[in-house]
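Box 3.1 — From sequence to structure: Sugar ABC transporter permease
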Amino acid sequence: MKTLRNLDLYVMLTPGILFFLIFSYFPMVWIFIAFQDFKIGQGLAGSAFVGFKHFAALFQDEYFYVILRNTVLISSLKLLFGFPVPIVLALAMNEIRQRFVLRTIQSVIYLPHFLSWAVVATLMISIFSFDNGILNDFLKMLGFEPIAFLSDASSFRTMLVLSDIWKGAGWGTILYLAALTGIDQHLYEAARIDGASKLRQMWHISLPGIQTTMTLLLILSMGSLVTGDFEQILLMYSPAVYNVADVIQTYVYRIGLGQLRLSYTTAVGLFQSVVSFLLVYLANRTARKLGGDSIW
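Predicted structure (token representation):
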């Protein structure tokens, strides 16, 4: 009877469960491709088992270490420069008392999150393109030489990090603002009575109040160190910057679909998944030992 009483909640939960079953768990059957010389016509049952042949080829491929380095470096830069931005924004917005100003700022910084990477990449190309980008047209009008923002290896990673921060900072700010609303306001009142400045209040009340949220998001972010952002890079990069921008997921896409090396790229993807799991596990264990906050 208790189950029937909560039937509406189970119905609402069903689409989410089906989504993960169909797109996350059922496809795991195809992991076996990594241990076979998979032929589409023969299927899983008819393809020859080759053990760790493709993993051996993976670690003997010099270019694999290039894409692994690119993946870790780009993800680390995004984490290093992007992780603090929503925290700073949330702390600043938490001090705004004019509702109209607060809602305006919220709308402006939240909007990019709801844009697809296809739209963001189109905007980036329109603004920073070497030939006819708005910024380079302005520089040429002033008499300066155009800058190859998106086709120069020295600047492409910077453009990736900046566009990722611009698109994702608003969503992170929502999470931290929600955590800030849960802090007891009497703590701020007591701090003001004791003469604490705004910065002191942020440091001793606001930051400890959102520490659990910060820890959980950091743990989840660790799993992305070897994944990168497939859509962003695929839509923005070109062969001119493959050496500094090609990551594991774009490599799997190009080699797996372009050259139909399905077994080899499945081995690459399985390696990526295992490393991501280990990073999340280690980060969670470290966080639990140091501060007591963890996902499990």
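Summary of the box: The two ends are 31 Å apart (CA to CA).
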